[in-house]
Write a structure and sequence with these properties.
Blueprint (H helix, E strand, L loop, with lengths): L3 H7 L2 H5 L24 E4 L13 H6 L14 H12 L1 E5 L4 E4 L10 E7 L8 E6 L4 E7 L3 H8 L4 H5 L2 E7 L2 H7 L3 H22 L2 E3 L7 H8 L7 E10 L2
Length: 248
Amino acid sequence: MRTIEEGRRWLKAEEWTREIETDQKRGIPAPPLQKPVPEGTRLIDLVPPGEIALGETPLREVIARRRSRRRFSQAPLTLKELSFLLWATQGVQRVIGDGVATLRTVPSAGARHPFETYLSVHRAEGLAPGLYRYLPLDHKLVLLWEDQGLSAKIVDAALGQKFVGEAAVVFIWAAVPYRTEWRYSIRSHKVIAIDVGHICQNLYLACEAIGAGTCAVGAYSQAAMDGLLGVDGEEEFTVYLAPVGKIP
């Protein structure tokens, strides 16, 4: 693991200007834009973005009242609200570059978008409590497994932060680093960290626009959260989470 001083030296301009042979330059095919759907899993249609009449609060007002919210009502999110929040954070606008990249509602270095969005659903209309994954290319959800006790498990993984389990839905972003490494090699880790900030900020603003709230959470047990998602912690690992609920 790099020391703080080594990390600071690595970020200096010299490291970003020297030539690096990447897998993209070697002609190695790009990794998939999203993880495949496990065979036999249930897919849930979301409300198409063009049919969502939400989030029309003026942007100036949304920015002015943006806060980290740690208190939520017991009201569930509607499927339309959840569809809006997913589209606002990872919605695909266009596939480009002969299918190797996407333009989305958030920026990403090289249009690589290295994240998978998982949802710990506790209270959402029409959805059983459990773990889901968003399929941005399809604008659908895949149900990974139902779990009535998931809210308690995610509190444990979030180091006992109770408000995380009190949310209607928890957004959990896991990085698939090779999507960015394919193009940027060892320079990827800085831009992956930057990219996830873009996603979470869009979630903040989208929540405020519909009378909901969120709070970015970076404090969690890496092993416990990765285990909760069923990811290996190497080729895919948790990087950020944000509980979402209606504001009391």
